[in-house]
């Protein structure tokens, strides 16, 4: 039986722990220190408690490791990865953004495009919706899909994985940027100037994707704007909440990743450039 | 003997009151309510007290009126202007930005480009440097220059007044925008991305000026960047302090004025557009 490990007892990590635990898997959850975390489904009262083990003191090698800390915390956990993996372990990074895999020195590592939404408040996680991790298709990810097929987790192994990476990057580029910079939730799109800025960010993000040989339908920007328009006025984004709580921003692996590729391809992307310049100071 | 009035007992208004009072002029200072304000020169201990009269209750008509409230407060004082002017009064607006004169329904009105720097803390104004007001040249401004020639005030009546308006607009466009949006004083120019953004704002600002038939030397942007580089790291801008203190921003008459002209001339100014979109939400 495969042993699973998860570093990061936040909304995503705890949800994955719950999903695997529910279907009878052997799961260990690691965090900064020994503690507990509570999990519940939105609109359900049942709470499930999970033990969190201090990663620094761990010596339990897992076959499949999910890294679910925020991008801004990745550097601080990397020195302890060898506490919990062996040479054939498979690592699944479940973070926002892209480009972080290169920081991990291990042969079997994959960055999931995460569609699991939830929220953590103190030591209590509420899961709102979705259980999907989108991964590149290969023997390791197909094996993960097979062993988790009875769980709530929906592992997708995709030929067109890069398109999915870029789709989520572009979605985040628009709404995360404008909500973080204006310090307002989705209601800020009611400003015509901000809506236009958001749209122009999508146009430029798509142009960078195209330089990377990722092609989208002509109406990509319109379809993403439609999605944004469906957001409740008071809906924040992860980067909005980070800004409001004066936490470090994940700029480097969302806007920064796209900005650096734009520079590499010598594209003109002034909307990305100006908003990235401001965000990168926080 | 001419009667002078000043609305707005802030750093600029109180300094003008002091300058006129020193040279023996008849000066009345108006504010929201009856109060007093103290004036002193930087590095001097002598304090000068001025009485502030409530504008709402005023019935003292002056020959020359300086309006020295912030742009965001202009609308609230306009209904009371007739308390303090007569049909031949000359109005001098000493505010940041440009475009506000049209709000004032009076024939003799001029917008000064202000170079008077100071700071107000509670009811105490400290004057740092400069006493210059740059105005268009005409009989009224030449008359003002003549009657104030013995005072500290330096009234300049200029043929190339529009160039001076635009020069200050462009200077403010760069540094005010980046310090307000990043919520950092001048030290933020040490970020290469922010420095580049600031430079690009100047380039676009100059392009808008050119569409308005205002022509600058080729090295305008470089020379303004040099000025910025001379700023102390901890130096804020008026818009930076407004942002940090959650006060209304003067965006509409600085960035907004330039942005609207860019739109009118159908120019492509994405750096102005994106930063204006964000600033205009505050």
From TrEMBL, chains A, B:
Transmembrane segments: none annotated. Gene3D superfamilies: N-(1-d-carboxylethyl)-l-norvaline Dehydrogenase, domain 2 (1.10.1040.10), NAD(P)-binding Rossmann-like Domain (3.40.50.720). Pathway: Cofactor biosynthesis; (R)-pantothenate biosynthesis; (R)-pantoate from 3-methyl-2-oxobutanoate: step 2/2. Its EC number is 1.1.1.169. Residues 5-125 form the Ketopantoate reductase N-terminal domain. Pfam families: ApbA, ApbA_C. One of its GO terms (cellular component) is cytoplasm. SUPFAM superfamilies: 6-phosphogluconate dehydrogenase C-terminal domain-like, NAD(P)-binding Rossmann-fold domains. One of its GO terms (molecular function) is phosphogluconate dehydrogenase (decarboxylating) activity. InterPro entries: 6-PGluconate_DH-like_C_sf, 6PGD_dom2, ApbA, KPA_reductase, KPR-Related, KPR_N, NAD(P)-bd_dom_sf. Residues 164-280 form the Ketopantoate reductase C-terminal domain. Keywords: NADP, Oxidoreductase, Pantothenate biosynthesis. It is an enzyme of class 1 (oxidoreductase). It catalyses: 6-phospho-D-gluconate + NADP(+) = D-ribulose 5-phosphate + CO2 + NADPH; (R)-pantoate + NADP(+) = 2-dehydropantoate + NADPH + H(+). GO terms for biological process: pantothenate biosynthetic process. Catalyzes the NADPH-dependent reduction of ketopantoate into pantoic acid. Belongs to the ketopantoate reductase family. This is 2-dehydropantoate 2-reductase.
